[in-house]
Amino acid sequence: MKKTKKIFLCFTAIIALLITGCGNANNVESEKTQMDLSNETVYTANKENVKLLGRTYFDEDILYCALSGTGVEFRFTGTRCSITVKGDSGSADEGAKDNHARIGIYLNGDRIIDDMINESEKIYEVFNREEPEEAVVSVVKLSESPMSTLGIKEIKCVGSPIEPTENKDMLIEFVGDSITCGYGIDDPDKDHHFVTATEDVTKAYAYLTAKALDADYSMVSFSGYGIISGYTDNGKKVTAQTVPQFYTKLGYSWGQNGSFSPQNTEWDFSGRKPDLVVVNLGTNDDSYTQNDAEKQAEYSEKYTEFLKLIREKNPDARILCILGVMGDRLYPFVEKAVEDFTQQTGDGKISSFKLTPQSARDGYSADWHPSVKTHEKTAEKVAEEIKRLMN
Question: Which site among 2, 235, 273, 292 is 20 to 30 Å from 228 CA-CA?
Answer without folding.
Answer: 273
